[in-house]
C-alpha cells in the first residue's frame, strides 16, 4: 500500500494516516488503535485491532486538496504519534507541522465542514469538530446538516451510551448488532468501528466513516467524519445492519 513514489512524507495520527508528495497522496481514516505502527517497529496490523470490529476508508487526493485537509486537521486535532514533513511543505501546509510539535494556535474553529474532491472526482464532505463543540457529532450536526435520518454503528460500552435520538428533525438510531455474513453477526459492544449511514428508505444514501463514538464522553473529544454518497460504499455498509434501537 505504501508506494515508494509517495514515501518522503508521513504523518500518522491516533486513528489515521496521511501520506503525500507534490502530485497526490492518500488519507486513511480508521478506528484501529495504534495503526499504522511507528516506522521503527515495521509495518504490521497491530494486536490492538484484532479483538473488536473496526472500520476504515482510504481516499486518494491530489495535492491541491491538502491545504484543505491541513485546515481540517487543525480542528479535529488528532493525537499525532509519528511525523515527517519536509520543510518545503511548511509554507503551504502550515498546521500539520505545528500539530506535530503539539503547538496549537489559540483561535481554532469550533467545528468546520468542508468539501473534498478525490483524485478521480468523487465528492466527499469532511466534518471536523474541536473539543469545544460539546455535543454528539451525529445527532447535533451531521444528521441535521445532511438532512437524513442516520443509523450509526459506533463502539457501545455499557453505561456509556447515548440512546437513539429523535429529538431533532433528523434522527439518529444506534445499530445494536451487525451481520458480516449469513451465519456470523456480532453486537456493537464488540465493534470498535465508527460509521453511520442514511436510514434505509430515505432517498439520500450517505455513508460517513470517522473516529468518534456516540458516547457522552466523546462529546468532549475532537474528531471527525468523512462522508460520501458513493452507492457501492453505501450498499456495502447497508448490508451489515442486523438491527437498531428505536427511540423511546
Ligand atoms: C438529542 O440530541 C440533541 C443534540 O445532541 C440533544 O440536544 C438532545 O438532548 C438529545 N435528546 C435526547 C432525548 O437525548
TrEMBL record:
Q: Which residues form the signal peptide?
A: 1-25
Q: Which domain of life is it from?
A: Eukaryota
| Protein's GO biological process | apoptotic DNA fragmentation
EC assignment = 3.1.22.1
Reactions catalysed, semicolon-separated, are: Endonucleolytic cleavage to nucleoside 3'-phosphates and 3'-phosphooligonucleotide end-products
Presence of the UniProt keyword Signal in the record: yes
Keywords linked to the UniProt accession: Endonuclease, Glycoprotein, Hydrolase, Lysosome, Nuclease, Signal
What is the main EC category here?
hydrolase
**Where does it live in the cell?**
Lysosome
Any GO molecular function: deoxyribonuclease II activity
User: What cellular component terms from Gene Ontology apply here?
Assistant: lysosome
Q: Which InterPro entries match?
A: DNase_II
As for family, the record states: Belongs to the DNase II family.
Q: Which PANTHER family match?
A: DEOXYRIBONUCLEASE II, DEOXYRIBONUCLEASE-2-BETA
Q: Briefly state the protein's biological role.
A: Hydrolyzes DNA under acidic conditions. Does not require divalent cations for activity. Participates in the degradation of nuclear DNA during lens cell differentiation.
**Protein name per the record:** Deoxyribonuclease-2-beta
